[in-house]
Amino acid sequence: MISMVSCMSSSEEVKITPENSEWWDNLYRSSVTPWDIGVPAPPFRTFLDSPYAVPPGKLLVPGCGSGYDCMPFLSRGFEVTGLDFSETAIQIAMEKFRDTGHLGTKGFLLHRDLFDIHEYRGYFDYVLEHTCFCAIHPSRRRSYMLAIKDALKPGGRLIALWWLLDQKGGPPYASSKDEIFDLFSENFSIDLAYDPADSVPDRKGRELFTLMTLL
Questions:
Q1: CA distances from 101 to 48, 119, 150 (A)
Q2: From CA 195, how far away is CA 184, in angstroms rounded?
Q3: CB of 106 within 8 A of CB of 77?
Q4: Does the structure show a pLDDT above 60 at 159?
Q5: Which residues, in sequence order, are bridge partners of residue 191?
Q6: Would the pTM of this model clear 0.85, i.e. be above it?
Q7: DSSP string spanning 131-163?
């Protein structure tokens, strides 16, 4: 697996860390984005075609990156707000939103820190998680859960495709099913959880799909 940390020179590591947006900008500008599979994650399309699919509503996509995962939800009538720490990622996503005719109508983008969007408290019907959780230092994971909770309306849903990793360092940082269940069961019911059959080849057996409801 490519470590995002190893992609930076020693001099850059001294000045910039993953807690700075410039660190992510450098990776996007260099096209060193191993977390980006270049298409919408197949399990999201499968979910939207399943009996468990949720009706369209306001959807927040934290760590939206290049915007691929926003596309199937936009095409199904969701109002999608992509959020990313990296301005470069937002610019890339903006091209997709514009090319599909969604920018400013059903598709919106925020160059913001997930931990600082307090004016959106209780605004969203859904949050979509994919490779944002594993990019955040484990010491901030409870804060991540609370930020998701705050962004959702009462009874809002968290739609998530977790990348399960067992490794030192990061990002991406290690995570497990048990950790995710323990962390989120404090404020969410876990309505659906399974290992997706249609993960991209290099993530087979290392993903978990969940649908959770805010209690």
A1: 21, 27, 30
A2: 18
A3: yes
A4: yes
A5: none
A6: yes
A7: SSGGGS-GGGHHHHHHHHHHHEEEEEEEEEEEE
